[in-house]
Design a protein that fits this description.
single chain, Sulfate adenylyltransferase, five-stranded parallel sheet, 35% helix, 396 residues, five-stranded mixed sheet
Length: 396
């Protein structure tokens, strides 16, 4: 319902509401509020807030001519309304307004302000040049159910250690499966934070979640893995992603975070003749960060192997590139089972191309051996049977 308040209004988008809610739920600690100008300058200089790692200024500086005019007109102590999609999201008591540089903010998030970078270009459109600071109160605050879910899961199995993974699983491939199993091997409970983007996604969050649930429910031990949706706002972008992931996981009650060695935000570098990464620069976040091996399919080992243990050269190894596997699915092709589990492929194609075949039953009975009984089949069944035919070797 649209607010009937007489306050001045600032209009924000859903990404901003997501970030504000993370702070309200104590999930971005050490951040507990919108930063003042002095806080912002300190973080810009040191990468620390209250002696703890935080990689960029957490500010509310929405773009738009009307927003700028309102912010410039505000007085200290004035109450305003934050509006998202015609509804009041929060009220805020003004403590300070100040000018900020969108370019400086973007550089801290992405490591660059080059407008040709797609993330930079999108984020710059959202950032304004004037920030507002003050205590805010969510209008319809609700208890964070994900915190409750994790706590209940810990109590159910008396978990001493809780590990976490942050992934998009777009799509869920064999490399993801091995990473999940490896992490689960060394913990009592595994929390998979499944990223939920705001912009259009290749495979919808709902389908990716269904795929992950299928794998968990059919191929992993019960009650030891839970999925938590994580809205993938701008705060998770760029080369600071691992730091934010560690904060979120820790504040959700996890004591370990596993990341893949090929994670784009790992940023390996050499310092004093030793290899280091962004993980070595994290200060005062009480979580153990483990860097997992990179897994590939080796055509000589004929199985999924770690690059650390496979003796064969790169020319024998197939890496798990999500974008390439996704390209096969988007073309309507079944990826090889060494790349993605056939049941997952069948599920994804049936969702991506519903009602693809004009006469599925006829095609099914014309193509596959059957028991002679008339049975109803869906598109997922069709893809699974087709994959079996691909594996038939007598005529190949």
């Amino acid at each position: 319902m649209t607010s009937s308040r007489k306050n001045k209004t600032i209009f924000i988008d859903r990404e901003a509401t997501s970030a504000l809610k993370l702070v309200a739920d104590s999930l971005l600690l050490p951040v507990t509020k919108l930063m003042s100008e002095s806080d912002s300058i300190e973080v810009l200089k040191t990468g620390l807030l209250n002696s703890k790692s935080f990689p960029f200024s957490f500010l509310l500086a929405p773009s738009g001519k009307k927003n700028v005019e309102v912010i410039q007109s505000l007085e200290i102590g004035e109450e305003i309304s934050l509006i998202c999609e015609d509804e009041e999201f929060a009220t805020l008591i003004v403590n300070e307004t100040f000018e900020v540089s969108p370019n400086d903010r973007v550089r801290l998030i992405y490591g660059t302000d080059d407008q040709t970078h797609p993330g930079v270009m999108q984020t710059m459109k959202r950032f304004g040049s004037f920030a507002i600071c003050g205590e805010y109160t969510l209008t319809n605050a609700e208890e964070n159910q994900n915190k409750l879910t994790i706590q209940q899961a810990k109590e159910r199995i008396d978990a001493k250690h809780v590990s976490s993974l942050v992934m998009s699983a777009n799509p869920l491939h064999r490399g993801h499966e091995r990473l999940i199993r490896q992490t689960l091997d060394n913990t009592d409970l595994l929390v998979i934070f499944l990223l939920k983007p705001y912009n259009s996604d290749n495979i919808s969050f709902e389908i990716r979640k269904e795929s992950l649930e299928y794998f968990i429910n059919n191929y992993l031990t019960k009650n030891r893995v839970i999925i938590v949706p994580l809205e993938n706002s701008y705060v998770f972008a760029g080369h600071n992603e691992i730091i934010i992931d560690a904060m979120i996981a820790n504040n959700y009650g996890c004591d370990r975070l596993t990341i893949g060695r090929n994670h784009s935000g790992l940023g390996m570098f050499s310092d004093a003749n030793s290899n280091k990464s962004i993980v070595d620069n994290i200060t005062s976040i009480d979580i153990e960060i483990n860097i997992a091996s990179e897994y590939v399919y080796c055509d000589l080992c004929t199985t999924l192997v770690s690059k650390n243990t496979c003796p064969h050269g790169q020319h024998h190894q197939i890496s798990y590139h999500s974008d390439s596997i996704l390209a096969l699915l988007e073309a309507g092709l079944l990826p090889p089972a060494v790349l993605i589990r056939k049941e997952i492929s069948a599920l994804l194609l049936s969702k991506l191309y519903p009602n693809r075949f004009k006469n599925l039953e006829k095609l099914y009975y014309d193509t596959f051996a059957t028991k002679g009984l008339l049975e109803e089949h869906n598109e997922k069944d069709f893809y699974l049977e087709l994959m079996k035919l691909y594996k038939t070797a007598s005529l190949t």
